[in-house]
Amino acid sequence: MSIWQTLFSVSHGVPRIGTVRSVLRSATKSISTTSSHTDRSPMLSRNHYDKLLPAGMRTSRQTFTTWIKHVLVLLGSLAVLCALSLACNPSWRAQFASHITPTAETELHAVDNGAQIKTDMSTQTLFSSQNQRTPMVTLASAHITSASNLESDKIALARYIARRYRVAHMATQQLVQVAHRVGNEFALDPLLLLAIMAIESSFNPYAESVAGAQGLMQVMTRVHEDKYAHLGGKAVALDPLANIRVGARVLKDCITRAGSLERGLKFYVGAATMSTDTGYGARVLAERERMRQAIDAAQIAQTKLSQPVYLAVNTNPHTP
Question: What topology does CATH give the domain 147-306?
Answer without folding.
Answer: Lysozyme (1.10.530)
